[in-house]
Design goal:
The complex is a heterodimer of chains A (258) and B (394).
Chain A lengths: L12 E7 L5 H13 L4 E5 L10 H12 L4 H12 L6 E4 L2 H7 L1 H11 L3 E3 L12 H6 L3 E6 L6 H7 L5 E4 L15 H11 L4 E4 L5 H8 L4 E4 L1 H10 L4 H16 L2
Parallel strand pairs in A: 1-2, 1-8, 2-3, 3-4, 4-5, 5-6, 6-7, 7-8
Chain B lengths: L4 E2 L2 E5 L2 H17 L3 H13 L7 E3 L1 H7 L3 E6 L9 H14 L4 E6 L3 H13 L2 E7 H6 L1 H9 L3 E5 L6 H14 L4 E3 L10 H9 L1 H14 L5 E6 L3 H7 L9 E9 L10 H4 L1 E5 L1 E6 L24 H8 L3 E7 H15 L5 H13 L8 E6 L7 H7 L7
Parallel strand pairs in B: 4-14, 5-6, 5-8, 6-7, 9-10, 9-14, 10-13
Antiparallel strand pairs in B: 1-2, 2-12, 3-4, 11-12
Classes of the chains: A alpha/beta (258), B alpha/beta (394).
């Protein structure tokens, strides 16, 4: 039974991202459980990639730290399965297509199922290329999360119509990372989304403060935060757990007030 | 429904933010490539500015020395800016201008494409920013300054290995931030569709001319055509009009660095496997978990962990063959061509010369081959001196 739907049953969803293996896989598991305790509704686990072209400097560096520490796709699966034995929170992978493809699509998604993963986000598999994985993912009960960007325009409709799990609405042009202002007309994008699907839509890229979360939570079904959490890990390394808990709690509290 | 496929290779594996713009680019290209005015303007720039057609030179001394096939050199090094890169840049910048762009960005390895892009931007009045691996800005300092003289801003890229692949990552990231007013002028037959097709079309002028020139000189087609391959743009341009001529062997020469059995290599066909990166499905040097491998070659222009998708297709179908050439062989060939023919070619092109030295003696005297001299070697002189243990300052 896929758990992603549950993420959106508890008011506006807070979706948090962790680069698996930064600073170690044991710590990723610990941080994930802190996030669960703080009220996080869904966790994205990043399988690190050497060349993450959609990421800003914060997540690029997290990926490099993780790879330098010896993280591999096999070890991430083991950690995910271990985490799954301790929590029922919806879990999705976020990675680039080459680590999936080189692992072998069949083998990769079979292991997703074994590890209790609910979905996957692959930023370099746009609508036109997602056919590479949709069938095999479905066979293993893994939802393929699609992205919508500020430039999607006439593409929003077709992407929304085929969406599953949730829709990842990219708030701004550019790469991931903290932004002070979000200028995209998210209202119009979300309106087209809702005309075409019932799939929940969460907004990510550049969100870091409770004020931003509250503002976006008014129009979207959830917010996605990655770089702001990874910044805490870059600062405090293995000791970041407490701060992650406090931060996620402040974000979820802001969403609860909506 | 995925477009721009060469067999299983190619495609458009990029973030959603870029998809709308890639479709716009594809539409604009399909329109303007048929537009008589666009074609005339490009043709005129190629002839009156870039010095086309480039000559096909019969290398008589080299031919006699090797004692086999007649060796011809397609002299792309004589183009304005010193390499074949200008052929593609003029096409793409002209197209960007038609699309209403104000600014172009480009990646560069050896600096040849960066210099060509900066030149095209200066000529056509566009802003230009070039992304270059920090390691490459050091080994190709002369080209950095050339770009700056031409009014471009050069961004040294510190991430990853600080070479060409990182420069492409950074250029792609930058493009996603300013996709509206910026055209990404990719320098090779790589990246997402329509780039591999568009760059190949703009570079195919090389083989269009060479085919006519060799028929005039020899009265028949050559037996082999050779070119160096990094991403593969000069090779694709050199091969393209010979692809239907099944009797012409097409040979790409890739950079083996310190050898294909070492980790210090950039020979993608010899050591890579199928993968998806930089917008395309093709062969890439990578580890067993799909992490892109750090690659190495003395030649900054061939120091790339992938190869264009159409090359992957030509390889898979057996239409072209790909041969690894080590640093040592390339440096020897660089010096050989200088002494034998008085031509200082780019260290990239020297990889093709190196394979020609092995191949020509095995061929008959009534056979012929063409080597694409993709660029001139002024930029490499200091590095070659260093390789030979002499430190000279430029």
């Amino acid at each position: 039974m896929n758990r992603i739907g549950k993420a959106f049953e508890n008011g506006k969803a807070f979706i948090g991202f962790l680069t698996a293996g930064d600073p170690s896989l044991e710590k990723t598991e610990e941080f994930a459980l802190e996030m669960v305790r703080a009220g996080c509704d869904l966790i994205e686990l990043g399988i690190p990639f050497s060349d993450p072209i959609a990421e800003g400097p914060v997540i690029q560096q997290a990926d490099l730290r993780s790879l330098s520490a010896g993280t591999t796709t096999d070890k991430v699966f083991q950690m995910a399965a271990d985490l799954r034995s301790k929590t029922e929170i919806p879990l999705v992978f976020m990675t680039y297509y080459n680590p999936v493809f080189s692992y072998g699509n069949e083998r990769f998604f079979a292991r997703c199922k074994e590890s209790g993963m609910d979905g996957i986000i692959v930023p370099d598999l746009p609508f036109e290329e997602k056919g590479e994985i949709t069938e095999i993912a479905a066979k293993n009960g893994v939802k393929v999360i699609s992205m919508i960007a500020p430039t999607s325009q006439e593409r929003i409709r077709m992407i929304a119509k085929e969406s599953e799990g949730f829709l990842y609405v990219v708030s701004s042009l550019g790469v991931t990372g903290v932004r002070t202002e979000i200028e995209t007309d998210l209202d119009s994008i979300l309106k087209i989304v809702r005309e075409n699907t019932d799939t929940p839509a969460a907004v990510g890229f550049g969100i870091s403060t409770p004020e931003q979360a509250a503002k976006i939570g008014q129009i979207a079904d959830g917010v996605i935060v990655g770089s702001a959490i990874e910044k805490l890990i870059a600062k405090d390394g293995p000791e970041a757990g407490k701060e992650i808990y406090a931060y996620v709690k402040s974000m979820k509290d802001a969403l609860k007030r909506i | 429904m995925s477009k721009g496929k060469y067999g299983e290779f190619g495609g458009q594996y990029v973030p959603e933010t870029l998809m709308h713009e890639l479709h716009r680019l594809e539409d604009a290209y399909e329109y303007y490539k048929q537009d008589p005015q666009f074609k005339e303007e490009l043709h005129s720039l190629l002839c009156n500015y870039a010095n086309r057609p480039s000559i096909l030179y019969y290398a008589e001394k080299m031919t006699n020395d090797l004692g086999g096939a007649k060796v011809y050199l397609k002299r792309e090094d004589l183009n304005h800016t010193g390499s074949h890169k200008i052929n593609n840049v003029l096409g793409q910048v002209l197209l960007a201008k038609r699309m209403g762009k104000k600014r172009i960005i480009a990646e560069t390895g050896a600096g040849q494409h960066g210099v060509a892009a900066a030149t095209g931007a200066a000529l056509l009045g566009m802003e230009c920013e070039v992304f270059m691996g920090v390691k490459d800005t050091e080994r190709q300092a002369l080209n950095v300054y050339r770009m700056e003289l031409l009014g471009a801003k050069v961004h040294p890229v510190n991430t990853g290995t600080g070479t060409l692949k990182d420069a492409i990552n950074e250029a792609m990231r930058n493009w996603t931030t300013r996709v509206d007013d910026t055209a990404y002028v990719i320098g090779s037959v790589m990246g997402p569709h329509p780039y591999p097709m568009m760059v190949r079309d703009f570079q195919s002028v090389i083989s269009k001319e060479a085919r006519e020139q060799i028929l005039k000189a020899e009265g028949k087609l050559p037996d082999a055509v050779l070119a160096c391959v990094g991403g593969g743009s000069n090779a694709m341009g050199m091969f393209y009009n010979f692809i239907p001529d099944r009797e012409v062997r097409l040979i790409g020469c890739e950079a083996a660095g310190r050898g294909v059995n070492t980790a210090q290599t950039a020979a993608t066909i010899a050591t890579g496997k199928l993968g998806v990166f930089h917008g395309m499905k093709s062969y890439f040097c990578q580890n067993r978990y799909g992490q892109i491998a750090p690659v190495y070659s003395i030649s900054a222009g061939l120091d790339y962990p992938g190869i264009g998708p159409e090359h992957a297709y030509l390889y898979k179908t057996g239409r072209a063959q790909y041969e690894p050439i080590t640093d040592d062989e390339a440096v020897d060939a660089f010096e050989y061509l200088a002494r034998t023919e008085g031509i200082i070619c780019a260290i990239e092109s020297a990889h093709a010369v190196a394979y020609a030295r092995k191949l020509a003696p095995t061929m008959r005297k009534d056979q012929s081959m063409i080597i694409c001299i993709s660029g001139r070697g002024d930029k490499d002189v200091a590095a070659i001196a260093r390789y030979r243990g002499r430190n000279i300052t430029e």
